[in-house]
Design brief:
8 strands, 15 helices, Rossmann fold, 2 domains, alpha/beta, two-stranded antiparallel sheet, Dehydroquinate synthase-like, alpha domain
Length: 344
Amino acid sequence: MKQWMLLPRIVVMEQDAIRDTAKVLTELKLDGNGLIVCGPHTCSFGRQIAGILGNEYPAEVLIVGSASMEEVERVASRASDKNFVVAVGGGRTIDIAKIASVSANLPFISVPTAASHDGIASMRASIRFKEGTQSIEAQTPLAIIADTRIMAQAPHRLLAAGCGDIISNYTAVKDWELARKLRGEEFSEYAAALSLMSTEIILNSATQIKPNLEDSVRLVVKALVSSSVAMSIAGSSRPASGSEHKFSHALDVKAPKPALHGEQCGVGTIMMAYLHGGDWQRIRQALQSIGAPVDARGLGIEDQYIVEALLHAKNVRPERYTILGEGLTRKAAEELAKVTLVIE
C-alpha cells in the first residue's frame, strides 16, 4: 500500500503575516470564492483577512462554536459552493475547518492566532463526540500563515499549552519504540528523530519562553510545524501521540471541567516518562519554567479524576500499544498520580 507524505507547501511566519494572505493564495494558484472560519474571539481577524482578500478572492466569514460534528457539518454545508477554506483562530476553530474542508473536498489554509497545539499544522483534528474527544484524520494545511504579532498577544496559557503538546512527543516516541519491540509495529527512525528534536528545542529553551514575546512564538510554532511534519512522514500520529494523549482524552471524559489539551498532555508526559524510567524531573522543571501546569492542582482538576483517567486510558484507541499496556490497577494509578505532586 502506497503512503502519501502530505506536507504544507507554504509556511509564512512573521510580523503582520496575514497581510500576505492574498499573495499566498495566488502562489498556491487558488481562485474563486472562499470561506473564512473563525471563533467568537477571532472574528475580527477573520474580517480583516476578508478585507485583505477583497474582490480578488471574495470570502464569506463564518463564526463557529464548539468542536462538534454538528459544527463541522454546518461549515461543510456553507463551504459547498466555495473554492477554498481559511481557518482563523485557535485549535478548536482550525480543527472544525480542517475536517469540514475534507468533507467539502476543498484546499485548507491555517491561520493560527495562538500556538496552543500541533493541530495548527497537522493532518489530525480533535472533535468532541458523546463518548468524549477523539482525534481523527483530516488533511494537512496547504499553507500556514502564522502572524507572530497576533499570536504574541494571545494569553500565555495557550502558548504554554502548545509547549506541553510538543513536550509530549518525548513519551509518544518511547511508546512507539516499545510497540516496535513488543508488537513489531512499523517504525520510522526519521519521523521519530524529527519529533524528538522538536521536544528538545522546547526543553532546552524553556527559560526563554515568556509571555508576549514574538521570539517565543516563533520558537514554539517552528516546533509545532516540525512535530506535524514528523506525523506526515510517519503517516500517522504515532510520533506525537502516545500514552500521554490517551490520558488527556480520558481526562476529557472523566473530569467535570477538563483543562486545555496541551496542559493535560504535559502533565500526562510527566507520569508516562516516570513509567518509562525517563527523565521526568527535567520535563516537570521545563513545564514549570514555561508556566504550564505540572499537577492536578495546576490543571484545576481534583486528584480523583486524574486516577480515574489513568484507569480509563486503556479504552482510548485500544489498538495503539503504549506503556500503559492493558491498563493499570487502581493502586498503580494512585501511585502514579502522586508523581506529579513531588516538590523539588
